[in-house]
Specification:
Blueprint lengths: L1 H29 L5 E5 L2 E6 L2 E5 L9 E5 L7 H8 L3 E5 L8 H18 L5 E6 L2 H11 L4 E7 L14 H7 L4 H6 L9 H5 L4 E6 L11 H10 L4 E6 L13 H9 L7
Parallel strand pairs: 4-5, 4-6, 6-7, 7-8, 8-9
Antiparallel strand pairs: 1-2, 2-3, 3-5
């Protein structure tokens, strides 16, 4: 009797268990990342709250990736070029935090998830436009061993330049009691580049020389001088007579080549 019950259980239940396992496996293949699936620039994209992951058609060896900050989808030519080369593209919205400690913590959690759950490369290519410069640099400074390359596009390197020490958003994000505290703050990216230089992180910036929103002289020029004095690689592509917009380059090849040179050792 016991044997018959066991056989009955096996013959009746086991097939259903196998079906469930197959369905689960197929679901994992169809939806490798959480969130709503859509198409972005011809690639599969998955949006889950403030997080977005775009997958290449075929991942490059080691699963390299670009981590974009702010204005996702704006001037995407650099992102698309690396997606075509097998890089994943990710985004984690920390808008309104101006690269403060909370923003860095959120990025830390996302990094851990991508590494542990999806096997992304240990080092990310960081991309930040305008105010996105604050988070890519502050996160990179806190985690220099996790950064492959930094690409800044008219990036804010000192919030005293933009949006300014009197900005209510900055005062709230950093918990300053007044503008005097903001003015005396020495924790901006331009003040803390040494960890990146010590780790040998190469940097490339694209700037418009006529930029009045994020002046080159108060941001990129200061960072470039300081970083090079520390022995770091810091390349700047100047767009003459161009202001804050448009960002990026029509032909992103110089940016792509710089990234490939300092990651895979290959270029176009």
């Amino acid at each position: 009797m016991v044997l018959r019950l066991k056989m009955h259980f096996t013959t009746k239940i086991l097939p259903y268990a196998c079906v469930l396992l197959v369905v689960s496996a197929l679901s994992a293949v169809a939806n490798p990342f959480p969130g709503k699936k859509s198409k972005w620039q011809g690639f599969d994209a998955y949006k889950d709250g403030g997080r977005t992951i775009v997958a290449p058609n075929e991942a490059a060896e080691g699963k390299p990736w670009v981590w974009r900050a702010r204005f996702f989808g704006h001037e995407p030519q650099f992102d698309v070029a690396l997606l075509k080369r097998g890089y994943h593209l990710v985004y984690c919205n920390v808008g309104g935090l101006y690269g403060n400690d909370e923003a860095v913590d959120r990025w830390n959690a996302f990094y851990k998830y991508l590494r542990e759950e999806h096997g992304f490369a240990e080092k990310a290519v960081l991309e930040g436009m305008s105010r996105g410069g604050l988070i890519i640099y502050n996160w990179g400074i806190a985690n220099p061993e996790k950064v492959a390359v930094i690409y800044g596009d008219a990036p804010v390197m000192d919030f005293k330049s933009w949006p300014g020490s009197t900005d209510k958003g900055i005062l709230k994000a950093y918990g300053f009691k007044n503008t005097e505290e903001a003015k005396s703050y020495r924790g901006n990216p331009v003040d803390n580049l040494k960890p990146l230089a010590d780790a040998g992180v190469p940097i490339i910036h694209v700037v418009g020389d006529a930029d009045k929103v994020v002046p080159v002289s108060e941001n990129t020029a200061v960072a470039e001088e300081r970083y090079k004095s520390m022995g770091g690689v810091f390349k700047v592509i100047h767009k003459k007579k161009v202001g804050h917009h448009p960002h990026s380059l029509k032909d992103p090849s110089p940016l792509v080549d710089f990234v490939l040179k300092h990651t895979s050792g290959k270029s176009k």
